[in-house]
Amino acid sequence: MIAPPNLEIAVLILGMLLLMFEAFMDKIDKRVFAFAGILGLTTVLIGTFYLAPVPQIDHASGFWSFYTADPLAIFFKRFALLTTILVLVMMIDYAPTVRGSVAGVTVQAGLGEFFALPILTCAGLMYIASAIDFVMIFVSIELVTISFYVLVSFTRRNPLTLEAGVKYLVLSALSTAFLVYGITWIFGVTGETNLDRITAALANSNIDQTAMLFGAVLVLVALGFKIAAVPFQIWVPDVYQGAPTPVTAFLSVGSKAAGFVVLLRVLRPFLMLPKMDRLLVVVALLTLLYGNLAALPQGNLKRLLAYSSIAHAGYLLIGVACFDGPAVTFYLVAYLLMTLLSFAVLIVVAQQAGERITDFDGLAKRSPFLAFAMLIGMISLAGVPFTIGFFGKFFIFYSALAHHQTVLVVVGAITVACGFYYYLKVVRAMYWRPAVKNDAIPVSGLSRVVMSALIVAIIWFGVYPEPILRALQPPSGQVAMKSAADH
Amino acid sequence: MSPFLFWIFAGLMLVFGAGVVLNRNPVASALSLVVSFLGLAALFMSLDAYFIGIIQVLVYAGAVMVLFLFIIMLLDLRAEKLRKINWLASAGGIAVAVALSVQILYVIGNFRFSQQPFPPLARSTVDDVHHVGSLLFENYNLPFQIIGVLVLVATIGVVVLSKRELR
Asked: Which of A116, A284, A394, A449 is the most exposed place for a label (fewest CB within 10 A)?
């Protein structure tokens, strides 16, 4: 039996050990560190299934007023670990590209840090999942953001990457400023940073509602930046396109999921504030429309996935606007599987051909396996039945209907149709266009295994979503949110 | 403290803060920032937060700014050329800034605490440093440890991104 806080400590020690060994063992193949990282994180992932129950002690002060190990936290810790493992697998495939765009004297210069940083980021993501205090939320979000600053601009010889790095740094720092300013307002009104105690303070009618709403909206601005909601999405296309592709995948899954966990936790006390739900509905509508419409004309697959990531933030926000924690969580799992599968294929193909959609022409003839993997990723992102993406959208729309949010459902359905167009554009290129070259694209054994596992997971959970739904029991999010919404 | 002193220091901060942006000579910008930091330190002092005030002077006005000046000297930065101003973009920026300021003013105007003076703080028996230290290492130990990891990540990042040739 493992105490929950030991999970993060194990991940941190793993990351530091890798850095240490990397510094002293410069003769060996650096991909060993990635494999060691994958192995270590898998061990921790298995460890999450043997957790000791949280001791029932006074939650008023000390460690447990910052850190929780409720089912939502544990679930997102597994989510972060799985994401990081898959990203490390992608990074191994991406290593040759890093070689060309990092200033180094040796062939594998910088790869050690490239493999070790995501592990430290993963610890940050796990801390975010457990954070129930604004101080803790701020510190762990910063840990994640700062490691992303480095990762995004890692291949700094590439001018696009440099541009992405600068844009991410400046805009992310701005959003951090909004977060801190919002937290100070909330602290100024309630005198508390702990979310439970803020909830208790808000029940007191003596609270200044306007000031509280102002603070809450400022915090929402910062989180909107993290989850790429309109109008805070300006950075997304350029940063996603310029960053090294595995980092883009990490950013679009890990960072976004972290933003949604914090959103679910932070919104709980603020739901009592007036007009909060209407604000969320408006943001969700804008995000849906912008993400899907802007994705239509894209010719670069990486940029297309960037806009698609905005669009999916819109669907997730529908769930948030209906305060349906389990539906949001399920959608995030679906999003993880299908997005990481698409990025994994993109990395392999981009090394041989390129990242434009026309580079995928005739992929079905060149490498049927890669084309099939991409096909599954794309139709799941579009939301075709018998894939997990369908159930994700189904639960979200179901919950929107249950809350009588008809506008959201109608706009959602229209944008899903848009999605079919641009996702199937990739499928058409792969299956109906003649190939320029005919040589097969090589896939490493590990990637092949991982891609097959993702394909199986997408179809399996698309037919039988029960295991994920059961993992979300007891529905901590829903019960808490429902009771908050009823107030 | 007297509101008179508050307005002097706040005004000083704003003027020199604007100076950081408006000056075209980087050394002048950096020195304006020092004055702005000193004004902030004075505000902290006037709020009885002596420790934070002194740290503000030591760390920001002292260490960080010396580092800035060193970098400016080493890189031999010249005065910036006057750029063509994109009027549409600046108008948009100003509009957003004005909208935000109006909102902040409205919220502060309605803020209940802003209509009455805060009660004075209770005189504590231990000194500031002791107080901050015990809070950091007892209550806020977990966030403090995470900041340790954060600094480690930042250090690795600086090495990776700035070293001329990696190994």
From this structure: A449
